[in-house]
Write a structure and sequence with these properties.
Length: 256
C-alpha cells in the first residue's frame, strides 16, 4: 500500500489530505465504498481535521532567567550559596572556537556559563537561573533600562527568616526589608548589584491576598511599612505570633 499526503490551504487553516493507493477486491466498487482486487488499484481520499492556530494566549510560566556578568566566579559562589546547591550544568568555551558573528548577542557557545535549577515542577515546567560570563562588561554601569529586580518566593515566614540568616552567614545583608501588606520581603544585592527579593505571602490564600490588594489602604500605599531586618528576625525568634508579625496597619496618607 502506498500513502501520499497533499497539503492545501483553506480559509480556516491548513488541510492535510491523505491519499492511499491499495489493491481492489474482486467485488465491484459502488458509491464511496471500495473492495480489494489483486490486480487493479484505486485512490481512497481521507480528510483529517483542519489544523488552525487559536488567537487565545497559551498558559505561560517564567522558565529561565539569565544574568550576564563580568564577575562570573563571585556570582557563581553567591548564587550557589543562595540556592543551596551548585549548577546542574556549566561550560567553558573552547578557546579555538570561531568568533560569534558580528552584531549577534552572546550565545551559550561563546561564554563561560552555568545553569542552576531553582524549582522543578515536572518536565517541562522547571525554573532555571543562568549565568553568562562576559568579560567586556567589567566597566559597564548596572544602571539603565532593563531588569529592576527579581523575586524568589518562599512558603512561610519561617522560611523567609531562614533565608535571611543564610545570606547573613556570608556577609550579605538586606538593603531593604518591608511588609507590603500582601507580602513581606527582604531585598539583597548580588555581586553585580542586581536586586534580589525574597518574599512570603501574608495571607493563607491567593483570594485573600488579592482582596487586600484591592483595598483603599493598599492603593494609597503599595510599598507598606519599612522594617529593621535584624529586629524583625529577633521578634520572630522571641516567639511573637506570626499573625501579629505579618499584620499591617497602613495609614491612608503614608508615603509609598
Amino acid at each position: 500500500m502506498n500513502v501520499t499526503h497533499q497539503v492545501s490551504h483553506t480559509t480556516t487553516g491548513w488541510r492535510i489530505t491523505q491519499r492511499t493507493s491499495q489493491p481492489l477486491h474482486p467485488t465491484a466498487v459502488t458509491g464511496a465504498t471500495a473492495s480489494a482486487s489483486p490486480t487493479e488499484g484505486t485512490t481512497k481520499m481521507t480528510e483529517e481535521p483542519v489544523r488552525s492556530v487559536s488567537p487565545a494566549a497559551v498558559p505561560l510560566q517564567m522558565a529561565e532567567l539569565v544574568l550576564k556578568t563580568a564577575r562570573f566566579e563571585e556570582m557563581f559562589a553567591w548564587y550557589s550559596h543562595l540556592l543551596g546547591r551548585g549548577p546542574f550544568y556549566e561550560r567553558t568555551p573552547d578557546p579555538d572556537a570561531p568568533p560569534r558573528p558580528a552584531g549577534m548577542p552572546e550565545r551559550a557557545v561563546d561564554v563561560r556559563l552555568a545553569f542552576f535549577e531553582i524549582h522543578d515542577n515536572g518536565h517541562p515546567h522547571s525554573q532555571i537561573l543562568g549565568l553568562f560570563g562576559i568579560g567586556s562588561l567589567a566597566d559597564v554601569a548596572p544602571a539603565g533600562p532593563g531588569l529592576h529586580h527579581f523575586q524568589f518566593g518562599v512558603g512561610s515566614l519561617g522560611e523567609l527568616i531562614n533565608q535571611y540568616e543564610r545570606m547573613s552567614a556570608i556577609g550579605a545583608t538586606p538593603h531593604r526589608t518591608a511588609n507590603h501588606g500582601q507580602a513581606t520581603s527582604f531585598y539583597f544585592r548580588d555581586p553585580d548589584g542586581n536586586i534580589i527579593e525574597f518574599s512570603c505571602s501574608n495571607f493563607p490564600t491567593a483570594a485573600q491576598e488579592r482582596e487586600f490588594m484591592a483595598s483603599p489602604g493598599f492603593a494609597a500605599n503599595p510599598s507598606g511599612l519599612e522594617l529593621d531586618a535584624a529586629a524583625f528576625a529577633a521578634r520572630f525568634h522571641a516567639g511573637e505570633p506570626v499573625e501579629q508579625l505579618l499584620s499591617i496597619d497602613v495609614p491612608a496618607g503614608a508615603p509609598a
